[in-house]
Specification:
single chain; 543 residues; alpha/beta; CBS-domain; Heat Shock Protein 90; 7-stranded mixed beta sheet; binds adenosine-5'-diphosphate
Length: 543
């Protein structure tokens, strides 16, 4: 964009230096719009005549008598502003304003390599500038409109992606629930060694699929800005213990030393999102163990105070593993980035873990990084700010010990209803309950569940969330509004929703807990035990 001087020249005749005053007088008089005339000799500009100045001189006393017959060289400006025709208008304007304000009144000559090209006036210059500005603002306006449209399209695309992932997640989780559930049930049926191995492979592959599904969902949730941190009290010792519990076995299997130490915690509790913090730490520890064949993995958690109420947790995971080649280091936090195809083949993984860690740490307002030397090892670290909770001097709530709490024995007296429309999931639930010595009635939608609850005195309902006719949330709300003790039946949701706050929605509808699909045997059994315990207590209190 931007016009050049040659684009803004005016249509004007030229004259030779021999022309006389009266010739020029005639030319200006005949054409009121003629403002400037260039004087040119052998194609070279030698002077400039400006209409107003010319008439002023002629109007002087004796002006006409003096100049009419004389060559125009007596009247012309012999040193007019001459510019190259290819100069941008904007530049010429600056030059005039800065160095040659006289040219504002007088006009200028455009030349190419010293030869005359044309004349111009400042009026034309400013008009051109105004046109440029107008065009520019038009372009800006249309660019802004395009950007607006692109933004709307991008938002729609991103929403479509999230919706697609939520749907796919549900669609993939349902059959995966079947595969993993049945694999767990099969394992409990007394298989020979070879069969056990086959089932183990089915189970492992299913778990990998599940992890991939969760990772992709997490990433898309974070990118869509839909992931919100759930800040809760957090004990760093507990975080260390959980890490130890989860990874110790794997480290022992690989015969590598595995140690965790905590510094600066001083018995205080902090506030942060424990689930997401664990997710980051577990990912780094998991990688360290995965990529270390001998030596050790050390986890170091340290709290540094940055005020009375705020602290920074620095977590470092050091390993003596294969390390990361320098050329692979810079993209490591990008999604699907893996240092080396060979190790990936050997160890599995999708290259999403670190991308998710980075985004989670960013979300927590922290930083993450690493240093690594190939064949020597790596240290991954992250730092996140934590709120220091007020010190609670009251003795902490005793932890309920699962092993000594009185779990009701599985007897025929316990009545369970399963509301689930999918036959595979029904079979899985039935199998799990049977493993626990429990039996259940089955219905296929929320409406039937409400009717069954009215008719029978159930202790527990396992409620699928998405069912035809009436979904699980609606059914729960209806059950809660029934008359009498049937309204207080324990209801556990079976959720396949990983994308949007499923847990909160279950709770808001009046459910007592939820178990994520694909169902994990231990998680289901624990949730059932807790629910039956609550039910028994409610009955004791009522009695
Ligand atoms: P994944 O482990 O699923 O492939 P990540 O995003 O967690 O995905 O890691 C990306 C890559 O970074 C890994 O494939 C590996 O090449 C490299 N990497 C991560 N952690 C380590 C580590 N502790 N030692 C060596 N390489 C690592």
């Amino acid at each position: 964009m931007g016009r050049l001087v040659r684009d803004v020249l005016v249509d004007a005749p030229t004259v030779s230096p021999k022309a006389r005053g009266e010739d020029i007088y005639e030319m200006f008089s005949e054409d009121n719009d003629l403002l400037v005339i260039a004087v040119v000799e052998d194609r070279k500009p030698v002077g400039l005549l400006n209409r107003d100045q010319f008439f002023l001189r002629m109007a002087d006393r004796h002006g006409r008598a003096l100049f009419s017959k004389r060559p125009i060289t007596f009247l012309m400006n012999k040193e007019p502003l001459v510019v190259e025709a290819g100069t941008p208008v904007e530049q010429l304007n600056q030059l005039i304003v800065r160095d040659r304000p006289s040219a504002l009144m007088e006009g200028f000559i455009a030349a190419r390599r010293g030869e005359y090209v044309g004349v111009g006036t400042s009026f034309e210059l400013f008009a051109a500038m105004a046109r440029d500005a107008e065009e520019r603002s038009h372009k800006l306006a249309s660019l802004a409109e395009q950007l607006g449209r692109a933004r709307i399209e991008a938002l729609a695309a991103s929403k479509a992606k999230s919706d697609f992932l939520a749907t796919m997640s549900h669609e993939i989780r349902t059959p995966l629930n079947g595969v993993l559930g049945i694999a767990q049930l099969l394992m409990a049926t007394g298989l020979d060694e070879e069969q056990s191995e086959f089932v183990r492979v089915i189970n492992d592959s299913g778990q990998i699929l599940l992890r991939l599904l969760n990772d992709i969902l997490d990433l898309s949730k974070i990118e869509a800005g839909k992931l919100e941190l759930d800040v809760q009290p957090l004990e760093i010792r507990q975080l260390a213990n959980d890490t130890q519990t989860l990874w110790q076995g794997r480290a022992v299997q690989k015969q590598i030393a595995f140690e965790i130490d905590v510094q600066g915690e001083n018995g205080r509790t902090f506030s942060a999102d424990p689930v997401r913090l664990k997710q980051v730490l577990f990912n780094l520890v998991g990688n360290a163990i995965k990529f270390t064949e001998q030596g050790s993995v050390d986890v170091h958690l340290a709290l540094h105070d940055i005020g009375r109420k705020r602290s920074v947790l620095r977590a470092e995971v050091r390993d003596t593993g294969c390390g990361i080649p320098e050329d692979a280091q810079k993209n490591l936090f990008n999604a699907f980035s893996q240092a080396d195809a060979e190790t990936t083949r050997k160890h599995g993984g999708s290259g999403l873990g670190l991308a998710i860690c980075k985004r989670l740490v960013d979300l927590m307002g922290g930083t993450i990084g690493f240093r690594s030397t190939e064949r020597e090892g790596s240290t991954f670290w992250f730092e996140v700010p934590l709120k220091v909770d007020a010190v609670d001097l009251a003795p902490s709530q005793p932890q309920i010990d699962q092993t000594i709490s009185e779990t009701p024995k599985a007897t025929d007296e316990i009545r369970i209803l399963v509301a689930e429309d999918n036959p595979v999931n029904q079979a899985v639930a039935k199998g799990f309950l049977k493993l626990k010595g429990l039996a259940a009635d089955f219905v296929e939608n929320g409406r039937e569940a409400v009717e069954a609850c009215k008719a029978g005195d159930y202790d527990l309902v396992l409620m699928d969330m998405e069912m035809p006719v009436m979904d699980g949330l609606e059914a729960t709300r209806e059950i809660r509004s029934l008359e009498g003790s049937v309204a207080s039946v324990q209801i556990l949701a079976l959720t396949a929703h990983a994308l949007s706050g499923a847990a909160e929605r279950c709770q808001a509808a009046g459910m007592d807990g939820h178990v994520a699909k694909p169902i994990n045997k231990d998680a289901l059994f624990n949730a059932i035990d807790d629910a039956l315990e609550r039910r028994a207590e409610a009955r004791r209190n009522a009695a």
